[in-house]
Amino acid sequence: MHNAAFAALGLDWIYVAFEVAPGGLDAAFAGARALGVGGLSVTVPHKAAALAAVDEATATARAIGAVNTVVRREDGSLVGDNTDAAGFLASLAEEGFDPSGRVCVVVGAGGAASAVVHALAGAGAAEIVIVNRTEARAVPVAALGGPAGRVGGLADLECADLVVNATPIGLAGASPEAVPFDPRMLGPGQLLVDLVPNPAVTALMRGALDRGASVAGGLGMLVHQGAAAFELWTGRAAPVEVMRAAAAGALS
To answer: 71-108: per-residue pLDDT in tens?
Structure first.
């Protein structure tokens, strides 16, 4: 989607993938500085480690505890940011959902969940409930929600306005029919957002649709977090629809 965006705007940029082994992030960043790379995306398993490896981090990245986007300054220093939270809110806006004053349940306690909770807290959600298999991991994520955040259980799903699956359960290539919870717990008037981007319609989404809930997949957040990164790197407005079409084509 980034290369499609560069082409659409006539920018002489190219986006390529580099596999970095665990423990190799400092060396990879040193190489990026030396080569004058304009920007980087960071994904699993390096998002948390990148926070310590950059020269400077934004308040958003520090709050979430993870970096997914790195911008190189003219002096060669690397600034870490996190565009996942902004990308998630932009995807919610596309669904016509305003989290202000609403009850939200986030399933999972990893990096994606942290970004979502940070976003929901900033958007004024009335209650942000974290549901996770391990309570100890859920506690610091719930803390990102401030006074609205707390650790809960599956029973909280039934009272939620918004339910977010922030786990990788259901991802294509793993166990695509697996679900993180029984979708029969959902119903009309609720919005389920499954952050799994591939497949486009997960087993969890199908089950929720059967129960009358509204659903959205992970493509929206994927595209919007990428668009935010594109703008940080280039200083240009991102061609969001071009990026969406390219991402959807790749995932299909």
So the answer is: 999 999 999 999 999 999 999 999 999 999 999 999 99
What CATH number has the domain bearing residue 116? 3.40.50.720
Among the options 2, 46, 47, 244, which is catalytic? Answer: 47
Find, among 181, 149, 183, 180, the residue nearest to 167 by Cα: 180
pTM reported for the whole predicted model: 0.94
- For residue 93, give every residue at least 6 positions away whose Cβ sits within 8 Å of its Cβ, in sequence order, or none: none
Would you say 192 and 213 are in contact if contact means Cβ atoms under 8 Å apart?
Answer: yes
Length of the chain: 252
Q: Are 193 and 224 in contact (CB under 8 A)?
A: no
112 is catalytic: no
64 and 106 share one domain: no
**DSSP letters of 220-237?**
HHHHHHHHHHHHHHHSS-
**Consecutive H or E run containing 117:** helix 111-122
